Amino acid sequence: MIKNKLFLLALLVVVFVSTGNLNSLSVKANDDKLTNFEPAFLNRPNYDGRIVFSSNARGNNYNLYVADAGGGDLHEITHEPGDEINPSISPDGNFVAYAQNNEGDWNITVMEIDTENRWNLTHSPHNETNPDWSDWDRIAYQSDKYGNWDIMWKDAFGPEWDGGTSPDMEITNSPQNETNPAWGRYNYASMIAYVRDGDIWAFDDNMGQEFRTPASGGGEQVMPLWYPGDDIFPNSRGPALIYKEKNKPGLMWSGLDGGNRGPLLKTKDQNPRNIPVISASFGLSPETIGFVTKKGEIMAFNFYDRDNPSMIDVREHRGRIKDMDWGPWGSHGGHGGGFMGMGGGGNRNGGGGGMMDRMRDMVPGGNNRGGGNNMDNRMMDEGRKMMQEQEEMQRRMMEEQRKMEEEQRQREREREEEDRRRRDEENERRRQEDEQRFKMEEERRALELKAEQDRLSIEEERRMRELDQRREEMEMERQMREEELRLEEQRREMEREAEQERMEQQARMMEEQRRMMREEAAARGGTGPGPEGGGPDFYVRGASEEQYNCMVKTLGPPVVEQFNFRDPRPDEYERLHNNGCEGVPELFGQEVYGEDDRGFFGKPKTGSLKTGGPGEMMQDPTMLAMAGLVVTVGATLLQMARGK
Fold it and tell me: For residues 353 and 601, what is the distance between their CA atoms, to the nearest angstrom?
């Protein structure tokens, strides 16, 4: 581009010197007076290509309009009742992607500009806005599908082109909001920038890596735009980002190397940084940028003119402009006829022509519209021929570049196809592995189920055996208890028989004893013991008749007869005593306390027996005192032993 400018400058100097009219040169461009020829001619904006913008010129909603970059040939290309905003022109200039809400939610639509043939790229019940067209056929956009804004993309000519559908391809999926996607250009076409909560981030598709750009800072950066050239200024290196600081006018720039950043331009008389910018787009040359002001106007400037850049209003319709995009003419032909503007576009009203036509307009009388042409026709023809050759060479270079770009895109598509094939093969391999793993898992579960069933069967057999064994044991226990009961009954029966035998034997012995006593009494001259015998002695150890009769009356004959073999028990003594049977204890050799008998600490109960047993001792106060004394002395000795 610089070489072209130097060539044109040299050509004009030759022409002007040959005509002798250098000092009389006067220049007028869209009513902006340019005081210096070289900055005005070399650094004015390049108005090649065309623009698409959204405007509310009809007053009720925003529609899309298309015009050449100089503002001519303006016409409306959408006529829907809703809003159409955020236009993005395809790299070949034939199509435009935009956001529209004609069905209620915001969706992305793609339109062929010259035919107005269109199709919806998204169909979701969510919102998709801010599309941006890459150097290839990808269109990135922001979507609130997952509750907050994320960046996604689709192929512009995918299934939707034929009425089908395809899934959204995610670039980001985070809890933060990512908005305003912007693809890189040319050598940086694999990068995409976006705004995350006020900071500018970028994603490199080749490296699969996300990073925060040096353009970020303080959460105030919005509207990223990649510089389409190599170096935005001589002191920068590599790609650069154009952006806007939120709530501040003007535009800023920053290199990705982080070494340089600052305002996009400076000026002497009017500072474009003070103009509120709401949308921006580069023209067909890297030094030309167009932008929409807060007032709804489209303006353009060449930011290489550091001293006094031209700022030209290209708006030629009534209405408030919301946003815009600048792109080339499509394959259907267009205004300007290429880089230098030689040929083509002449049939459009308001056409600005090419570089040669603009140069003719700068020469007094050079447009043959009055005053005559003072330039030598032969020189103009020669200059036009040289310019045509230069343009042809430039066209060949651009064609070669487009060819190289097409080859690069073809390689990228082949690479993507290879990647897709590899992904499909990998997915197929994983599917087969999953199926094999699922089959093996099913077999393992079947084996485990069979093993569990076998274990339960064995456990059931074991329980049945244990139950049968328990039944047998219970039956044996029952038989043993029955046998024990039978033996116990036999033992009791034998004991009863033995007791009966003993009682019968005892009765025989008593009868024998009575017989012997009667015989003994008869030998002494009596008839026998007891009342029946009539003798003086009675049958209980020589008891008197009164005593015998009292014992029989109190205890009964069977018990009294036992006194020949045992002494009366204490309770029997008590009953005999209470019934007034006197002298019975002494009859059996027991001592009885008299009224005068006293213990050491008192007198016992009258008539108590001196049995010497514990009960008798507990009734004797003397014995109680002795027992207490013994206990006290023992406790004292025990305490002394413990203390020692």
Answer: 156
Instruction: Provide mean pLDDT across the span 517-524.
Output: 67
What is the arithmetic mean of pLDDT over 104-120?
A: 94
The dihedrals phi and psi of 456, each to the nearest 5 degrees, come to: -65, -40
Instruction: Give the residue range(s) of CATH 2.120.10.30 domains in the chain.
Output: 44-334
Q: Which CATH number fits domain 44-334: 1.10.760.10, 2.120.10.30, 3.30.1490.100, 3.40.50.300?
A: 2.120.10.30
In this predicted structure, what is the pLDDT of residue 557? 84
Per DSSP, the three-state class of 183 is strand
Q: Is residue 624 predicted with pLDDT exceeding 60?
A: yes
What is the distance between the alpha carbons of residues 498 and 367, in angstroms, rounded to a whole number?
Answer: 164
CA distances to 105, 150, 169, 189, 225 from 173, in Å: 21, 6, 10, 21, 22
Q: Is the pLDDT of residue 29 over 50?
A: no
Considering only residues 287 and 605, tell me which one the structure prediction assigns the higher pLDDT.
287
Q: Which residue is listed with tokens 């955020």? A: 86
Closest CA to 589 of 611, 604, 565: 611
Distance, in Å, from the CA atom of 516 to the CA atom of 512, rounded to the nearest integer, reads: 6
Q: What are phi and psi of 643, to 5 degrees?
A: -65, -35
From 178, 180, 191, 201, select the one nearest 131 (Cα to Cα): 180
pLDDT at res. 219: 66
**How far from chain centre, in Å, is Cα 447?**
36
Helix (H) or strand (E) holding 288: strand 288-293
- Is pTM, for the whole model, over 0.70? no
92/443 Cα distance (integer angstroms): 58
Q: What are phi and psi of 50, to 5 degrees?
A: -140, 165
Mind listing the pLDDT tens digit for each residue in 540-592?
767 788 888 898 888 888 888 788 778 888 888 888 888 888 888 888 877 77
- Interatomic CA distance for residues 515 and 448, integer angstroms: 96
Q: DSSP state, 547? A: H
- 245-247-250-252 Cα dihedral, nearest 10 degrees: 0
In three-state secondary structure terms, 163 is coil
Measured over the CA atoms of residue 493, residue 497, residue 498 and residue 503, the dihedral's sign is: positive
CA torsion, points 565, 567, 573, 577, in degrees to nearest 10?
80
CB 142 within 8 A of CB 181: yes
